[in-house]
Specification:
The protein is of the alpha+beta class. The protein has 4 helices and 8 strands. A 6-stranded antiparallel beta sheet has the order 1-4-5-6-7-8. It is elongated. The N and C termini lie far apart (61 Å). This is Type II secretion system protein. Keywords: Membrane, Transmembrane, Transmembrane helix. It comes from Candidatus Scatousia excrementigallinarum.
Length: 219
């Protein structure tokens, strides 16, 4: 009669150790993949929300080129926010206050863009009821062309979207994305140029590239 040979304690421990090593190597990749899918789903939903709100704001207040948006203008930012507020469901509002945005905020190349909340320049941030955070600022045409890949000749509002709120990594092009209010409505940063969407770049233009690539990150 054949007898079954039992595993020794040492063999069991070795096997468990191997399983643990494999799990430690694969689980982070699995989690990263799950997080990426969740982030893209949140980005799609938020873009749709912003587009619909923009269409409503335009129907109420004319085309954005007539909104008289000015860089470094507190009244301009407040005006833009007031145009959108009726169409948003929010759980927090942070007019030039901390509490709605994660810091430090980094470029795609990992250098710091915003180190901490700075009251010396005005921003309006808020958090949707689904946990997505948004920050509104206004940029001059020169920066919109050079940094955001948008061909305009006027100052315009930029809506930064942090799809997982204040959670890490807080990196532009990873969990933070930019949209710009233009005469064509709410458009993704990089709509006219995505050349700077690369690991050594700043990442603003990656929003359009993600959409072009079927709502996936391929950079």
């Amino acid at each position: 009669m054949l007898t079954k040979k039992a595993f020794t304690l040492a063999e069991v421990l070795i096997t468990l150790g191997i399983i643990g090593v494999v799990a430690s190597l694969t689980l982070p990749d699995i989690k990263q993949g799950v997080d990426a899918k969740a982030n893209m789903a949140a980005l799609q939903k938020t873009y749709s929300t912003l587009q619909q709100a923009t269409n409503m704001a335009i129907s109420e207040h004319e085309n954005p080129i007539y909104w008289d948006m000015k860089d470094n203008s507190t009244p301009s930012i407040n005006k833009v926010y007031s145009y959108y507020k009726p169409y948003f469901k929010m759980m927090r509002e942070c007019p030039n206050q901390p509490g709605c945005w994660g810091y430090p905020t980094r470029y795609l190349n990992k250098t710091i863009y915003w180190n901490a909340h700075d009251t010396s320049w005005y921003q309006y941030a808020f958090t949707f009821t689904d946990g997505v955070s948004v920050l509104i600022d206004i940029y001059p045409a020169s920066q919109l062309q050079s940094n955001f890949g948008i061909d305009v000749n006027y100052d315009a509002a930029v809506f930064f979207v942090d799809v997982n709120s204040e959670k890490n990594p807080n990196i532009i092009g990873k969990d933070i994305f930019a949209f710009v209010v233009t005469e064509r409505g709410m458009v993704p940063a990089g709509m006219n140029n995505t050349d700077n969407c690369k690991s050594s770049g700043i990442g603003f233009e990656c929003t359009a590239k993600i959409i072009q690539d079927g709502w996936t990150i391929k950079y």
